[in-house]
Amino acid sequence: VTKTTSSPHPLAEFELLVMLAALRLGPAEAYTVSIVEDIEDKTGRSVRRANVYTTLERLETKGLVSTELGDPRPERGGKARRLVTVTPKGLAAVRATTSSIQAMVGELGDTILGAG
Amino acid sequence: VTCPRWSLALLRRVAPPGRVDEVLGDLEETHRRRLARRGRRVAVLLTCVEALDVALSLTRGRMLHALSKQALGLGILRDVRYANRMIAKRPGFSAAVALTLALGIGATTGIFSIINSIVIQPLPYPDSNRLYTVWEQDSLGTGFRLPSYPTFRDWHEESEAFEGLAFVRGTGLTFQTGDQTGMLLAAFVSEDFFPTLRAPALLGRTILAGDYRGTNPNVAVLSYRTWQRVFGGDSAIMGRTISLGNAPFTIVGVMPPAFVYPNWGAVYTDAWLPMPALPPSDRAALGQRDFHADSWVIARLADDVPIEAARSEMDAVARRLATAFPETSARWTRVFFLSVKDFIVGDSRTRLWMLGAAVAGVLLICCVNLAQLYLAQGAARTREFAIRAALGARRGRVLRQLLTETLLLTSIAGALGAALAAWMVHGVRVNAPSGLPRVPEIGVDWSLLVVAVGLTVITAVVFAAVAARRVSSPHVAGFLVERAGTALVRGRRGTLPASLLAAQVAVTVVLLVGAGLLGQTFWRLSVVDPGLDTDGLVLTVIQPPSPAYDEPLAAALLYDRVAESIRQVPGVESVALVNHAPVGNGGLRSRAAIGQAPSGASDDMTVLFEVVSPGYFATMGIPMLQGREFTAEDAEGPAGPLIVSATLARRWGEHPPVGARLGVLKAARTRLDFGEPLVGTVVGVAGDVKHFGLDDDPPAVVYVPYTHNVWSQMTVVARTALPPEQLLRPIEEAIRSVEPAIPLNGPGVGAGTMEQRVRTSYAEQRLTAKLVAAFALVALLLAAVGIYGVLSYTVNLRTREIAIRMALGASATTVQHAVLGRIGLITAAGLFAGVVAALGLTRLVTGLLFQVRPNDPITFVGVAALLLLVAAMAAFMPVRRATTIDPMSALRRGD
Q: Most buried pick, B670, B747, B851, B858, via CB within 10 A?
């Protein structure tokens, strides 16, 4: 068995979910509140925004995402959103993590789905 | 319609500066959506919870970050590394601190461990506070005597207040096992003895009821020490036979190390045997109601009986016995209870507490010096701290630095102190002065070490904190500027509050006075005239083996042959015999009356009963004041000639007692004629002898020729012009050549010199005096260091000021006054306070003093002079430096 990836930053599960949500929403719409909603919608589980703050802070420290303040919005009481962009390094990390999961799942897919 | 105001306020407060907008916006947006979807009440609730959650996670992140990076990990390691560097950089200061502390901690821990073991800890018996020794007391309440065995039996019969009442009789016995022979101190105990003490055996068993009723009472329980010394700790000795006093005994048990009761002074019991196994001669003595020696009665109060009830019950018993046996007990109408612990600890209590007070004083002075060192150091390092503060170090940071250094030094000191304490305690265990009780129980109490270390750490921390506080930020600039030379440095900064320095001087004065008084006591004891010529005397106890010499005639013949044999030893000039030689605690009291046999009436005199051989007074160097000493004819002829001591002779008043009639009761304890009167004629008056100890008054003595009441053991005294140590072996050889079974190895037997005996008699006073003197010297040294430190620091700080004054024409005297003014005042105040305190405190130790009054003016004046002298010496160097400052160079110096 050969190693599929050598990424220096394998992502933890919640980190991966946040990264995927940010990718799906795109740089113009990905920010804390939308990321929480997206994960809740897709996975059906409840997400604490506090967790998203700390996760995003960690991801940014690792250079996997970059953030910038957007325009003020009336529905936010005139406050700006912090918009999240996945960096190329972040994309590589997502790719490495998902492919290692896929490699591990492999032909187990039927078994897992069947069991589920 | 917005989210709750407080949640916004909370998040605004805790969010990192750049993220306030974003976080608040997120909260607002979510809240609006919730309002729309779930209604106001649920939305507010959820938003509040969420705000708290977010606030916590935002702050926790920062707190963890701060803790991990700054405070805990790197910070403290850095502090320790830095502290190490600072300690190494100032080896003198660090060594001074560590050694001062180690001394204080070690001495305090050591002495208080000993106090704790001896005075404070209960005796090693369960419920030991209910154990008492019981004595007969006379109707006046001033006389005490040990109960005789018949009296004990009556007490045992008639009392109900006790759970146990036991009789112990101590006696020296020869022992033989395998090829070993020697002496053991045996205690014959009544049936209640072990149950009363509730003492279980370490190995085997104690003496049980069956041993008292069975056919073979000859069982022995050994002390731990004897088991180790004689049998090498062999656990297979149970059931083995040991010969004690020429009778076979079966060893049935070994007691634990701390079980040494009863101790006879510092001599501990080696073996316990049941009363029915008493040798016949002892049994005869014990049967006599007038025999009061070498035995104790111990009682354990029943649980629900108060001591007052026991006392009144026993007083009633005593009154009945006094009526029933008037000839022996008429005056003895009361019973006296002394707790076993008080009895065992006795005089050592005051002595030990005084040592404790002295050592506590030393620790106090150590702490004051430590504080002074820290304040001076803190001030000397003002520049360092000021620079650090200017570069952004907060006060807490500087304080933590000082604390780390302090703790590091205190740990080193604690380790050294622990070693010192262990060494002290071991030393006392091994070389305990005779008379120090409970020695086998002495051990280091490590909790005391913790207390001592804790005390010093607190001192160090407090004063390190004070030192650091002085470097508070508003003054930082001032410090830097002052050092740069535009202002004079205030002289007071960095010195201790005057009261602490004065207290240090005061404590030193008290210690010095104590040392002075005890030193005088010791010196006076060492030069006191014991009433005999102690040089060139060798003493050996002759213990005739039983039963060959049980008969008085056989014993007297043996003593004669031994004396004759020693007389042949080259270098021996004269030889004599005595039952109880001075100076020590041995001696048997009897009753005497002028002109007739003692009647038991209250005008009987209590006298020391001494039997001696012809030539005793010449050999001992005791002067004959009147009449003559005993001759060979006196010893061989009929009973009659008596000699009295000068103290007793005074009872005749103006008339010389020579030729007067005197009656005395025979006191040889194992003889059948014990207690019978001997009425004779006084043929001489001998000089007084300090028989029971150099600090005791000489007793009234009646001397009787040894053949007229033959003692069961004698001391043979030999005088020589040679160094007496050279004759110890030859004299033992001479004794062995007469009777090899006379024991010469073991406690209390074997040849020894009189000088040694006299020195041992005040060994405890000598040790106390030495220790207190050592503590006082340390205190004096520390006080001197303190004065020197303060002065030289002041001079350093005021160099510039002094230089300016001198440049403006101040004389050296003026400068000296300026420098010395404050310290002189402090020393004087401390001296005064110390003298006042010493006047009060020394009263408490009056009992330890000999021929010195507690307010002895010579001691007080001497101490004051010594202290002023040392203070002056300590002040000399700094003051000299101040007056020899060269104004120009001092002012030019940039510092």
A: B670
